[in-house]
Fold each of these.
Amino acid sequence: MFSIGIIKAIFLGLIQGLTEFIPVSSSGHLEIMEYLFGSRADNFHLFLEFVNIGTLLALLIFFRKRLWQIIQDIFCRKNYRLFINLIITTIPAGLIGFLFSDFITETPFFSSPFTIAIALGTVGLFMIFIDRLPHLSSLKDENTLSKPRALLIGLAQTLALIPGVSRSGSTIVTGRLVGLNSQSAAEYSFLVSIPIMLGVCLKMILSSTSRAYVAANLGLLIISNLAALISGLLAIKFLMKFLKQPRSLQTFGYYRVVLAGILLILAMIR
């Protein structure tokens, strides 16, 4: 699977967990790591899909109380609004991902360092610009989000299929644009990523190729997912506190722009 075995699997799992939730693009960073290692495995996209299990578990653990409250509200018929909005936001990315994810993962253009760099830098500039806008937060929290605004976040989430964009980055930025503060936008982003990740896991289970891949690489996948689980929990906790600070998105925006520049330089000199 990997040229350096367990060490590389742990390292990539840690990168996945940290960057899945911090809006700097997990797929972009993993693609960069594989690019810099100088070896591109034919089944690397399968690893990227399976390492999502660890980050999904991190989400379920961290938001277990919030998820339980949503379930109780549904069965007690108290509040359907957030649940319906989560479904609305999930549909575009779920549909596009189901139809075109294989095409994207198998097309060299989307894994090109130039494509990743452009995506990293573009979203980074949006983050810097949005945090400079005055009085952008007009909604109390994600529970007050309207259906059209929820759909807009869902449409933005489809862009995360491109490495370098970031699922959390695209949804947090759009959440800010429709009136959520940074912390509420991040929490909504994390909640809406759960059904997407569940869908990815279901798709993997139904695929005979994926099941064969698991059987052949079970040990490394368990280790990498444990690393992703631990680093994912730390990343969520850090981000939810960090976003309470004013103009906190700018920090990630500048990081993305700098990383994009470095990646472009590396791509041109190789």
Note: The chain has a mean pLDDT of 85.
Amino acid sequence: MFPLDFGPYEKYRMDRHLQIRSFVLIAEKGSFAAAAAADVVTAAVMGRRLTALEERLGVKLMHRSTRRLKLTGMGEQFLERCRILLRDFEETERSVSQNQRTVGGNLTVSAPAGFGRRHVAPHVPGFLARHTGVHVSLSLTDDLVDLVREKIDLAVRIGAMGDSNHVAVKLHSNRRAVCGTPEYFRRFGRPRTPEDLLRYNCLTLTSRSGQQRGWTFRDGDRVATVRVSGNLGCNDGELLYQWVRQSLGLGWRSAWEIHPAVVRGELITVLEEFALPEYDVQAVYAQQRFLPAKVRAFIEYLKAQYRLPGYWEKE
């Protein structure tokens, strides 16, 4: 590796930490050459760093001669303070870094009410048994919460992510489908196109989940939204699902929720050729340089549970 020399303007760019660290290194090594070799720079660079530090402080820290370097009285005092400062700095960095690798602390998780009750909350005890240093706070709501404002570490969400300031990790594949009971379709017939839904009683979520804008379908190469309507609405997805099962109308529900009932013949899905290809279950968190270990661990734990054979067959 070649020594690095950034030229005569380096002293104007260097930070205080670099100046102090170089001063301590020069003092401990006893020469510019030895300190430069340890820091993989030239002796001239080390000399400029010391000069910049002395000029900034307005004091002489070392006497220089062709044979050796000697600390001044002020330099000896400053050296001891600098050693303490660098040690504290390194310990602080190490502590923060260790926290990023250690699974512990408070973990706040948000999830849709129905999905959270059935597919998030049941896994929290097992996660806590594996990671005893974590404390979990679970918020179940069908509203689209602001992760930063509400101080949410992780949100489990269904469907596309709309905020570019967030990161989404796929937990499991999922699709949305229009569904109803065999009885309902016997009475009113089946819709053939998404536009036909305008003639049906469609049960809708009234929460801030985004579904109130309409039901979304694939129409060739584009995505189209149909503003459906009906005589029943609520802010709880699980209640809406129960209304669908009571033949009160049609619902636009996720595969994770309706699959067991479809397999048993209790519900029928329609318009599947217009369904969006993916409406995945995702873990969403605010963008950050270092993802806390507790968040990463919970994501991996949920993914492992969802991959278990037969998991999604259960109701």
Note: Residues 1-13 have pLDDT under 50 and may be disordered.
Amino acid sequence: MQKLKILLTIPNFDTAGSGKALLNIATRLDPTRFDVQIMCKHSKGDFFKVVEASGLKVHVVDYETPMRPIGKALLGVWSVSRKLKRINPDIIHSFHYSSDYSEALAARFSGIKFIYTKKNMNWGGPSKNSWFLRTLLANHICVQNTDMFAFFEGFSKSKFTLLPRGVNTIEFTSNDRSKSEICQKLELSDNFRYVICVANLVPVKGVETLIEAFNISNADGWHLLIVGDNNSEYGSHIKGLVKQKGMTGKVTFTGKTPLVKDYLEVSELFVLPTKNEGRREGSPVSLLEAMSMGLYVLGSKIPGIKDQLSNFPELMFEAGNVQELSGKMEMVFNLSQMELKTWSAKLTEHVLNNYSIEKEVLIHEDIYRKVNGG
């Protein structure tokens, strides 16, 4: 049987979250059926070294073309199409988050089938026409949550597949390690119980809602961990808010760290307070990782999160609603250890049954065969 040659594309591996999602798929596709290769625009970023170490062939090609002025744009797209033709995959699958359609056009020029994954809730405004053209040129679109289908009215439903993110449930499993030992490693006190939020600090993540809710909660004995890159204007604002409210001793900012699993291991409650505006969430893997680890979770009632917690509506709150989130957090603070363990088992089972990385990979394989006519 001849293998299908799949070229997975992403602009860069600077943002390890998106790059890791791509690599999780690339390294798990059936090697007896698929020849998987990767293409990105440059080799910067620490995670690029991880990609190289995977053994997969990596092409470094600047494959995006500015689409104005149109004459110069078409020449640029044609040049990219010749580079794609030399690689000559059967299918190009783009993991690009943006509305760029030059890649799809270059694939068309080279006669290569093109798929993209819709990763966020951006659609209207200045980028609407670009999203329309990217969709029109694509042979298939992978949609990460059910709310996204509303963007594509007028297109054939057969052109779309719901493909939410999956989580490595083997990696993200609680190992019941000594809390004291992990806290010592992380330089945290093991006298606290921990609430955690894992998110790079950008405005859409709504972390100020969590901080304000935690501040007005009866949270005696609890401490808040903010895990993620805070080297930004918004990060400075959030740290200033903590200081302003006199919460310095109640909140720890870890910054960007490879030790996310360790921080989850010592925590009991995970909160994702993303706002219901802008790009929002596609299918937030951090929430799935927390559930897989057995944490109780709370998430704002927005696209993506609504799908993941559809079986547990009581775990959602209105985005930006400080009072509602505070009330739900206090409810968790008052649960017994037995009640927390019961929730832990339910949420872990939910991820295993619906959001495993193995399930995500199988859907990818089905899409590739379908697009190739198999």
Note: DSSP finds 14 helices and 13 strands in the chain.
